[in-house]
Specification:
The chain is an alpha+beta fold. The chain has helices spanning 12-16, 22-28, 33-58, 86-93, 123-128, 199-202, 275-282; strands at 3-8, 62-67, 79-84, 101-105, 135-138, 141-145, 148-149, 157-162, 169-175, 178-180, 184-185, 188-191, 215-219, 228-230, 233-237, 242-246, 251-255, 260-265, 269-272. Strand 9 (169-175) and strand 10 (178-180) form a beta hairpin. The longest helix has 26 residues, at 33-58. The protein starts with a strand and ends in a 23-residue tail after the last helix.
Length: 305
């Protein structure tokens, strides 16, 4: 290993403690349980970042340290290391094509950190053996709006919805060129296999194995609707102020009346760690074959697609 990019986040406490808004300052310094939790999480973040920097220096590894909001496309690096939670890793994943990515969970007590195989206690050990450490290849989505590629691939999910969360979203959806008759609700949520334990899972989606090669999608706020699967999804917006949200709320693009959104399989990404094994440890009901499950699907059966 010759060169590493180290990407870190700023904690909520760090962002809020000197806010111009007196209400925010008063809250973040208060004895409210959530304020205390944010201060504790900040301390964990700082200690983890110090540990990562120390280990990189101790092992003689050249690195550039970059705040995640200042990140652009990495070039010339052997590895990218993120210090934070899954949100930090997801943001970084938007800029990476063929560089292995190691996530360091800065606050394991407060963050699930599914993508992060490391923390401050085992980072030095993993770093010393990183060239031979096991990795996982994950699917991402390629996204186009009116045929023009969106720069950032999605690692978790894409939400198409009205810009006002309380408003109806109207659209025409085709899955593998077959018209889907719904076309109205609170939008469409589409997830990758790794994202099937995130947003869509909380909306009764199906957990799918990491090597699953289909897009899972679900019409939101449509009674009785269940997950469906396709290789390609096209959504024509019949809503004027619609948007897409890529891997959360930080990355978003407008999609206006008459424009078409296209979702397909995009470039894969290499994550350091055995993520399928991490799933088994996090969820005892996740069987070793990696088959799908939810309230309506037997865990020993693949979904009907």
């Amino acid at each position: 290993m010759s060169r590493v990019m180290l990407v870190y986040k700023r904690s909520s406490f760090d962002l809020y403690k000197d806010s111009d808004d007196e209400l925010i300052r008063n809250f973040i310094w208060s004895n409210h349980p959530e304020a205390k939790r944010k201060r504790e999480s900040h301390e964990h973040q700082e200690k983890t970042l110090e540990t990562v920097v120390h280990e990189l220096q101790r092992q003689g590894i050249s690195f550039d340290q970059i705040y995640r909001a200042d990140l652009d496309k990495p070039d010339g690096y052997d590895y990218v290391i993120t210090v934070g939670g899954d949100g930090t890793l997801l943001e970084v994943a938007h800029f990476i094509l063929d560089i292995p990515l190691l996530g360091v969970n800065s606050d394991p007590n407060g963050s699930l950190g599914f993508y992060s195989s490391s923390n401050r206690f085992n980072f030095g050990e993993i770093l010393a053996d990183i060239d031979s450490y096991k990795t996982t290849q994950l699917h991402r989505f390629g996204i186009k709006i009116d045929g023009k590629s969106v720069r950032e691939p999605a690692l978790n999910d894409v939400l198409f919805a009205h810009s006002n969360p309380a408003a109806n979203t109207y659209y025409v959806l085709t899955a593998d060129k077959v018209l889907d008759p719904v076309g109205r609700g609170s939008g469409v949520l589409m997830c990758t296999p790794s994202g099937s334990t995130a947003f869509l899972y909380q909306e009764n989606g199906i957990m799918t194995p990491l090597d699953f090669d289909k897009i899972q999608y679900r019409h939101r706020a449509v009674r009785g609707n269940k997950s469906q699967f396709a290789s390609e999804i096209n959504i024509e917006s019949t809503t004027r102020p619609a948007r897409i949200y890529i891997d959360g709320d930080h990355l978003t693009y407008p999609v206006t009346l008459g424009q078409t959104l296209n979702i397909t399989q995009g470039p894969q990404i290499t994550i350091i760690g055995e993520l399928e094994e991490r799933r088994k440890k996090m969820d005892p009901d996740y069987n070793h074959c990696g088959h799908c499950r939810d309230n309506s699907v037997n865990p020993h059966q693949t979904p009907d697609i």
